[in-house]
Write a structure and sequence with these properties.
By secondary structure, the chain is mainly alpha-helical. It contains 14 helices and two strands, in the order αααααααββααααααα. The longest helix has 36 residues. InterPro entries: BPD_transp_1_N, MetI-like, MetI-like_sf. Belongs to the binding-protein-dependent transport system permease family.
């Protein structure tokens, strides 16, 4: 396990270095923030002073080396707009995005696993066919349209749920969370469901496919031949094995949920990292854009590492391959 972790950490370090270069060059190429941040009425001396203060007077390769040196010290630059550390701005918004992504992932597992399990155990029943047909909607419907429909039905027509904002929050260890209050949960219900629709459909189909494949395995047939109850066969011999691909995909999708929550946060005015990056793109706030993308890269790498470790715990063959 130690060799496996060291190898994965070395790979992660190389990926972070390459991605930092790609992110920095990509953000540099999308536009000049001076044209937006500096007043057109400013004279040439003021413009040159502002450009030098922002560090934009250096060649690209020097800007990257300066960024890399500061990043190794935990400094990802200062926001051009807010004049605050970019990392601090993102970390202030991260709890809102994390609890939204966790809520969506939890909803996907709670809803998707039982439905997929039922559809796999009774594939020819009308209910199973209805579940699989409905799951297609989760892949097909655009997120922004579903969000608007949820607001129209549950907020405007029925008045059951609030349409925007994060609601009442509770501070724990210096961080504010909304899922610990009733008002916060009410505000979180629709955006979390909107973000979870694709994941629910994915979990349903993964679970169903895993159940159908596992039910044909020899150890399942042997368990049945021993006279074990159907519930024990299902939850001990089948369910544990189908969790391996589900955990892998859901873990990777969790990173995607955080990265691509931009649309949901914009529709529901959820004050998370996604809304911050949209505002930063509009004004070409490069440090915030670079910091956000680098944090997303680190999140993906960390999640991949955790998924690999969980995978090795669920499947001993992975540990044996690592030793060999």
């Amino acid at each position: 396990m130690t060799v496996f972790l060291l190898r994965r950490l070395l790979q992660a370090g190389g990926v972070v270095l390459v991605m930092s270069l790609l992110v920095f060059v990509g953000v540099f190429a999308i536009g000049d923030p001076v044209e937006i941040l500096i007043s057109p009425e400013a004279d040439q001396i003021e413009r040159e002073r502002a450009v030098k203060a922002l560090g934009l007077d250096l060649p690209l390769w020097q800007q990257y080396l300066v960024f890399l040196g500061k990043a190794l010290q935990g400094d990802l630059g200062r926001s051009f707009v807010f004049n605050e550390p970019a990392l601090q701005l993102i970390l202030q918004r991260m709890p809102a995005t994390l609890e939204l992504a966790l809520g969506a992932t939890l909803a996907a597992l709670v809803i998707g696993l039982p439905l997929g399990l039922y559809a796999g155990l009774r594939p020819h029943s009308p209910v199973s066919r209805g579940i699989m047909a409905t799951s297609i909607l989760g892949f097909s419907l655009p997120t922004f349209w579903v969000g608007l429909m949820l607001i129209m039905v549950f907020a405007v027509q029925l008045g059951w749920l609030p349409s925007t904002g994060r609601g009442e929050t509770v501070e724990i260890l210096g961080t504010r969370w909304s899922f610990l209050t009733r008002d916060g949960l009410a505000h979180m219900a629709m955006p979390a469901l909107n973000l979870a629709l694709f994941k629910i459909s994915l979990v349903i189909r993964l679970t169903r496919a895993g159940v159908r494949e596992t039910m044909l395995m020899d150890y399942v047939k042997f368990a049945r031949a021993k006279g074990l109850s159907p519930s024990r066969v299902t939850f001990v011999h089948v369910f544990k094995n189908i969790l391996i691909p589900v955990v892998t995909v859901v873990g990777l999708e969790f990173g995607g949920t955080i990265a691509f929550s931009v649309v949901t946060e914009s529709v529901f005015a959820w004050p998370g990292m996604g809304k911050l990056i949209i505002d930063s793109i509009n004004v070409l706030d490069r440090p915030v854009m670079v910091a956000y993308l680098m944090i997303i890269v680190l999140l993906f790498i960390t999640i991949n590492l955790l998924v690999d470790i969980t995978y090795s715990v669920l499947d001993p063959r992975v540990r044996l391959e690592g030793k060999s």
